């Protein structure tokens, strides 16, 4: 096949979605990946403006978190500390806002609300932030109720720095994959696996949710970022377990926790001879997670047919032509 024909075939395969050309990876959550618009809309950035300092001044900071109900955000307990470094059950900044459903912080996607109350766990580095208004149209995270196991695979989202030496926070959410390396009473160790072995949470990723992804799109929060070495690094950071705190979380959030409605039972009656009746409509195929294939089967199938036809034409043309002569230190991540 000559060069011109090869380029034409490759172009059509790309358009059909059958070939994906290599791109340049975007590294952040240190050495993670950039989140596309519309993904992981439950992820939250908490922005604290005017936090009191021990010297009588003010500073600004931020944390990450996850929406667990219309009015409550799950984050790390150390995101709300007083001037003596004690966890407190109240907002500490002059103003604390949450941005939900916005992967690109420079866009107008998603929603913004203000934190009006805080509740601190007495047994773990976990806090709950109450919002001044409900967040609608975004599916919250579900709480894990089962003990994590060593080797479990999870995903992390956050708005932290891209490198421990950076001073400017990124304007887009980052993500990476991790595996559970150890399980303690209230903490689990988590080490980066993808896109790199040194993918790791960084400063301002504190409170970011580690979660599992089910085939139906459900995200279940397993832990929140607590502490770890300076990023990026290989090896484990520590996350606060959610299953051991789930009962306390439920007692605070109460009825605001979203419980998915149960599916309606299908009718036992079949269709009538005339085509009527209450036969259940066919179910849509379950959505795949990011490790699966695209759900655009129709477009791909059409692409296969088109590509096969083109290959046949090019092969026939070829037959008619004459042949021509590849340092480790623990600290909170707020």
Automatic annotation (TrEMBL):
<protein>
    <submittedName>
        <fullName>Trypsin</fullName>
    </submittedName>
</protein>
<dbReference type="InterPro" id="IPR043504">
    <property type="entry name" value="Peptidase_S1_PA_chymotrypsin"/>
</dbReference>
<keyword id="KW-1133">Transmembrane helix</keyword>
<keyword id="KW-0472">Membrane</keyword>
<dbReference type="InterPro" id="IPR001254">
    <property type="entry name" value="Trypsin_dom"/>
</dbReference>
<keyword id="KW-0812">Transmembrane</keyword>
<dbReference type="GO" id="GO:0006508">
    <property type="term" value="P:proteolysis"/>
</dbReference>
<dbReference type="InterPro" id="IPR051333">
    <property type="entry name" value="CLIP_Serine_Protease"/>
</dbReference>
<feature type="transmembrane region" description="Helical">
    <location>
        <begin position="298"/>
        <end position="316"/>
    </location>
</feature>
<dbReference type="InterPro" id="IPR001314">
    <property type="entry name" value="Peptidase_S1A"/>
</dbReference>
<dbReference type="Pfam" id="PF00089">
    <property type="entry name" value="Trypsin"/>
</dbReference>
<feature type="signal peptide">
    <location>
        <begin position="1"/>
        <end position="28"/>
    </location>
</feature>
<dbReference type="GO" id="GO:0004252">
    <property type="term" value="F:serine-type endopeptidase activity"/>
</dbReference>
<keyword id="KW-0732">Signal</keyword>
<feature type="region of interest" description="Disordered">
    <location>
        <begin position="256"/>
        <end position="288"/>
    </location>
</feature>
<feature type="region of interest" description="Disordered">
    <location>
        <begin position="142"/>
        <end position="169"/>
    </location>
</feature>
<dbReference type="InterPro" id="IPR018114">
    <property type="entry name" value="TRYPSIN_HIS"/>
</dbReference>
<feature type="domain" description="Peptidase S1">
    <location>
        <begin position="29"/>
        <end position="254"/>
    </location>
</feature>
<dbReference type="InterPro" id="IPR009003">
    <property type="entry name" value="Peptidase_S1_PA"/>
</dbReference>
């Amino acid at each position: 096949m000559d060069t011109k024909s090869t380029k034409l075939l490759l172009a059509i395969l790309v358009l059909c979605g059958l070939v994906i050309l290599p791109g340049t990876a975007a590294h952040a959550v240190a050495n993670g990946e950039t989140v596309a618009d519309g993904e992981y809309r439950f992820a939250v950035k908490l922005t604290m403006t005017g936090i009191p300092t021990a010297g009588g001044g003010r500073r600004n900071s931020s944390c990450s978190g996850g929406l667990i109900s219309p009015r409550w955000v799950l984050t790390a307990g150390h995101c709300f500390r007083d001037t003596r470094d004690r966890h407190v059950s109240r907002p500490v900044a002059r103003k604390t806002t949450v941005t939900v459903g916005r992967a690109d912080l420079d866009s107008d996607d998603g929603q913004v609300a203000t934190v009006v109350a805080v509740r601190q766990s007495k047994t773990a580095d976990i806090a709950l932030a109450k919002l001044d208004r409900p967040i609608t149209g975004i599916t919250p995270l579900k709480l894990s109720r089962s003990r994590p196991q060593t080797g479990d695979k999870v995903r992390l989202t956050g708005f932290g720095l891209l490198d421990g030496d950076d001073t400017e926070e990124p304007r887009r959410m980052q993500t990476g994959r991790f595996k559970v390396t150890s399980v303690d009473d209230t903490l689990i160790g988590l080490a980066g696996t993808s896109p790199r072995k040194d993918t790791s949470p960084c400063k301002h990723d504190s409170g970011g949710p580690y979660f599992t992804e089910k085939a139906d799109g459900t995200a279940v929060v397993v832990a929140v970022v607590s502490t770890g070495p300076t990023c990026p690094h290989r090896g484990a950071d520590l996350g606060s377990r959610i299953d051991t705190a789930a009962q306390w979380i439920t007692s605070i959030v109460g009825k605001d926790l979203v419980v998915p409605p149960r599916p309606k039972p299908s009718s036992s009656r079949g269709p009538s001879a005339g085509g009527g009746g209450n036969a259940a409509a066919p179910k849509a195929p379950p959505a795949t997670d990011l490790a699966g294939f695209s759900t655009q089967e129709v477009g791909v199938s059409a692409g296969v047919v088109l590509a096969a036809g083109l290959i046949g034409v090019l092969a026939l043309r070829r037959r008619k032509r004459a042949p021509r002569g590849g340092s480790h230190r623990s600290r909170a991540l707020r």
